[in-house]
Amino acid sequence: MAYLSTAYMPIHENQFLHASVPVRILLASLAGFSWAMKRRRPNQDFYTDSNALIAIAIYDGLGGVVLGWHLGSFDGKIPAYR
Question: Rounded to 5 degrees, what are φ and ψ at 42?
């Protein structure tokens, strides 16, 4: 929803897109870390939780890397502020 509200501006001026790159990579890292910690102590809900965490890690991780690669920057800043 947030992207749709900023989609009218060009990509090189869209701060939302640039700022979401490091946030998505951080969220993927946290999901992967949480999955690794829950894997040590599996319980009855482990498989449900682990599927969600792996999905978040893959979706956000790949999305952040591909978006950062497309934008040419992983620091979260638009070109005018570099």
Answer: -70, 145
Residue at 11: amino acid letter:
I
Residue 80's nearest CA partner among 22, 3, 15, 2 is: 15
Instruction: In whole angstroms, give the CA distance from residue 7 to residue 66.
Output: 18
Q: Is the dihedral of CA 10, 79, 59, 44 positive or negative?
A: negative
Task: Return the domain boundaries, the chain.
Answer: 27-82
Tens digits of pLDDT across the chain (82 residues)? 566 777 788 888 888 889 999 999 999 999 999 888 887 776 666 666 678 889 989 999 999 999 999 999 999 998 887 6
Q: Which secondary structure element, helix H or strand E, spans residue 44, and what is its range? A: none
Q: Give the closest residue to 35 by CA, choosing from 58, 8, 16.
A: 58
